[in-house]
Write a structure and sequence with these properties.
It is built from 2 helices and 12 strands, in the order ββββββββββαβαβ. It is mainly beta. It has a single domain (30-170), classed as Jelly Rolls. The strands form 3 sheets. A 7-stranded antiparallel sheet has the order 8-5-10-3-2-1-11, with helices on one face. A 3-stranded antiparallel sheet has the order 7-6-9, with no helix packed on it. It has a two-stranded antiparallel sheet with strand order 4-12. The radius of gyration is 18 Å and the shape is globular. The N and C termini lie far apart (54 Å). This is Cupin domain-containing protein. Pfam families: Cupin_2. Residues 57-124 form the Cupin type-2 domain. InterPro entries: Cupin_2, QDO-like, RmlC-like_jellyroll, RmlC_Cupin_sf.
């Protein structure tokens, strides 16, 4: 068989890797309260050989992370609701059925300014963001369980932990999503 210089051989199947079927409502799913939202890890880097992670995100009214940036690609697929997304300082409304992609290193944030919860899928490539969420998040019962109530001292301790761990996960928190 002759090969063209543009042809790349596809590697053999790796039988050590398994089919994964993830259900965010399954009792085995990992649900984490993170900064007012609830994130359910559907696929981790362990499931995808580090290529990407898939997270089901429940963002209640008023929810969403502070402005930040990171050196990995991030895509959001809105399933329900609408978000205010800020990308390099420009605000946009993103609605159910739409997908937004944030290139690596770009300042951004999302905020649920509506009165209804938002549900979206988040894909981070390569994987790793789920490990950050596991370190900073609090386990909760379901994908829509609200985060536990915290007092000012607990909130300050949470943000201190986030600031200390963020560089390890190639993330930088910003004052504004410029």
């Amino acid at each position: 068989m002759s090969t063209n210089s543009n042809t790349v051989a596809i590697p053999a199947d790796d039988p050590r890797r398994n089919l994964v079927i993830a259900n965010p409502d399954n009792s085995d799913a990992e649900h984490l309260a993170v900064a007012g939202d609830t994130y359910t890890i559907l696929l981790s880097g362990m499931d995808t050989a580090g290529r990407f992670t898939l997270i089901d995100m429940h963002v209640p009214p008023g929810g969403g992370p502070p402005p930040h940036r990171h050196d990995f690609e991030e895509t959001f697929i809105l399933l329900d609701g609408e978000l205010q997304a800020t990308f390099r300082g420009e605000q946009r409304i993103v609605r159910a059925g739409e997908t937004i992609h944030v290139p690596a290193n770009a300042p951004h944030q999302f905020h649920n300014a509506s009165s209804k919860p938002v549900r979206m899928l988040c894909i981070c490539s390569p994987a790793g963001q789920e490990e950050f969420f596991k370190e900073i998040g609090a386990p909760v019962a379901t994908r829509t369980t609200p985060p536990p109530k915290v007092d000012a001292a607990q909130e300050a301790a949470f943000f201190k932990k986030v600031m200390e761990l963020a560089p390890r996960y190639r993330t930088e928190l910003l004052k504004e999503a410029k």
